[in-house]
């Protein structure tokens, strides 16, 4: 197929990452950038048309597809405008900032029949694909449970640059945990219910700095998740995968997945099992290191988006699936405040019915 005309809406940190990847490709033709900081962005990208209003980009440059990398609260409105013009979207995570706006966006995507991909880039890692394959082939048997950690110490400058991060909604649950929830849904299965507790005693901000969640999956597996931005550890997905320069590589596993026949550490991909498939606590358990190659997940994501647009592959994560990750994450924040178990099945159903024509 011919190169796909594409625009990028939002030239912040993640938008610039997409722009760097697009500059290296011949299968996409960048026809415009939209950002409110018009003069600054135009000076940095002198060979590309830059618009202060993204609607001008959509109407004048007329791209086949766009990448939406604007602030979270603008995702829904921008996606709706794209859908009404028949423009396919790669929309950064979280898909929107509220369940109500997610339902409205989903309804418009369905109504106009556009193709969508939510930018949970970890789904495109080779290590993640390898793990999903191992679980799918029953390498460790039926999954019994998962224990996971995301813990690092954010510097004071992180909060000084963006003071909103110390207020409600700016803590690690809604900023960081959503990546992990999506990973769990993708690899283990749909989340049925959650419970949680949270604390702000380390930093004393109005928002949590530490939380712990209990997770129940549809397949009967149970999970625990500890998350904190106030603890010095080597246990984050970013450090284990080496996917971001802000997080020095540790190579350590922050996930332990346990099954009837063995266990797996991730992302370091160590399998633990007993000889000859034994299931006896008196038998020794041996480790096997599994190799998986490394690719740039943002490049792989653009490859996949190209195939989604051309109709040669179904979307790995359309808007509805991204909204389910948002539902589960928001429920954990709610459960931590309400102190109760929250069943998600009615919320999934409500999302679908609210988005129905």
From TrEMBL:
Name the species this protein comes from. Answer: Bradyrhizobium jicamae
Official protein name in the record: Oxidoreductase
InterPro entries, A to Z: Gfo/Idh/MocA-like_OxRdtase_N, Gfo/Idh/MocA_Oxidoreductases, GFO_IDH_MocA-like_dom, NAD(P)-bd_dom_sf
GO terms of molecular function: nucleotide binding
Domain Gfo/Idh/MocA-like oxidoreductase N-terminal residues, every copy: 4-120
The GFO/IDH/MocA-like oxidoreductase domain extends over 128-263
């Amino acid at each position: 197929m011919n190169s796909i005309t594409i625009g990028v809406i939002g030239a912040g940190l993640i938008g610039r990452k997409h722009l760097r990847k697009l500059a290296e490709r011949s299968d996409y033709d960048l026809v415009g950038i939209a950002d409110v900081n018009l003069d600054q962005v135009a000076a940095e990208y002198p060979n590309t048309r830059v618009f202060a209003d993204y609607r001008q980009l959509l109407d004048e440059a007329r791209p086949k597809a766009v990448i939406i990398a604007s602030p979270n609260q603008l995702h829904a409105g921008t996606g709706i405008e794209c859908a009404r013009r028949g423009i396919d979207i790669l929309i950064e995570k979280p898909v929107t900032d509220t369940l109500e706006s997610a339902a409205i966006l989903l309804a418009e995507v369905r109504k106009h029949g556009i193709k969508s991909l939510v930018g949970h880039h970890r789904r495109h890692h080779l290590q993640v694909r390898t793990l999903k394959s191992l679980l799918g082939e029953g390498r460790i048997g039926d999954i019994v449970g998962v224990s996971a950690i995301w813990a690092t110490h954010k510097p004071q400058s992180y909060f000084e640059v963006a003071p909103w991060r110390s207020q409600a909604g700016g803590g690690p649950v809604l900023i960081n945990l959503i990546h992990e929830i999506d990973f769990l849904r993708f690899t283990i299965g749909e989340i049925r219910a959650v419970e949680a507790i949270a604390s702000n005693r380390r930093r004393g901000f109005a928002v949590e700095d530490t939380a712990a969640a209990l997770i129940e999956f549809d397949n009967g597996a149970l999970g625990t998740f500890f998350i904190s931005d106030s603890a010095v550890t080597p246990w984050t997905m970013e450090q284990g995968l080496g996917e971001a320069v802000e997080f020095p590589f540790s190579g350590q596993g922050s996930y332990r997945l346990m099954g009837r026949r063995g266990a797996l550490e991730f992302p370091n991909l160590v399998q633990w099992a007993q000889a000859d498939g034994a299931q006896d606590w008196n038998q020794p358990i041996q480790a096997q290191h599994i190799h998986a190659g490394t690719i740039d997940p943002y490049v792989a994501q653009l490859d996949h988006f190209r195939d989604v647009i051309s109709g040669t592959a179904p979307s790995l994560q359309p808007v509805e699936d991204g909204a389910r990750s948002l539902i589960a994450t928001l429920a954990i924040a709610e459960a931590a405040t309400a102190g109760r178990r929250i069943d998600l099945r009615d919320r999934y159903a409500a999302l679908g019915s609210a988005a129905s024509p």
